[in-house]
Amino acid sequence: MTQEGRRTGRDETEEERADRMWVELIQEVRVAQTGVQILFGFLLTVVFQSKYATLAHLDQVIYIVTVVLGACATGALIGPVSLHRLVAGRRVKPQAVRLASRMTFVGLLLLLATMTSSLLLVLRVATHDAYVPWLVAAVVVWYLGCWYGLPLWARRHHSSRPHDVTARPDRPTGRRD
Question: Rounded CA gap, 87 and 83, in Å?
Fold first, then answer.
């Protein structure tokens, strides 16, 4: 487990690792699911407001795109739950964790797109100013930095290096979390 006094990773089987990663993934998905479901719920009510009919055609198109993105994000972020229910007890947890992780990543990208188009629509309707695209772009850069930039930086600078991992014939080698 250690090499020259340094931690080199967890001493767990592939199944134990999959169990741990599944629990971690589900905790992460719960946060994103709640946010996307609340946002999607609010989006669904907009079309029933009297002001919707007075929106410019472009704003109505942005709204429709936003609702579709929100629906897709909701599907991708709820997908891991359905996956788990359908494959539970089939001895495919490591593969299910990988698939659920990919669905979650796609869901987060779709959530980013949903939030971006929602912000664009709200600011266009609220201000009609030329600076709206710049403000939206700044917020997207902020999201990208928080959601992807900082985590990727931390992964690169603080994760175990390949030479830190003790190879064991009974454990698969590769990335460790």
Answer: 6
Whole-number Å distance between alpha carbons of 119 and 141: 13
- Distance separating alpha carbons of residues 135 and 4, to the nearest angstrom: 50
Cα–Cα dist 89/118, whole Å: 40
Q: Which amino acid is at 83?
A: L
Residue 176: HSE in the Cβ half-sphere, 13 Å Cα cutoff: 21
**Cα distance between residue 104 and residue 110, in whole Å:** 10
Handedness of CA 119, 120, 126, 132 (dihedral sign): positive
Q: pLDDT digits over 5-47, tens only?
A: 544 567 888 888 998 999 999 898 988 888 899 999 999 999 9
The residue-averaged pLDDT of 44-62 equals 95
- Within the chain, residue ranges assigned H as helices are 14-46, 57-87, 93-127, 132-144, 150-158
Is the pLDDT confidence value at 2 over 70? no
Give, as one character, the DSSP assignment of residue 6.
E
CA–CA distance, 49 with 42 (Å, rounded to integer): 11
- Alpha-carbon dihedral sign for residues 22, 27, 31, 37: positive
Q: Rounded mean pLDDT of 52-69?
A: 96
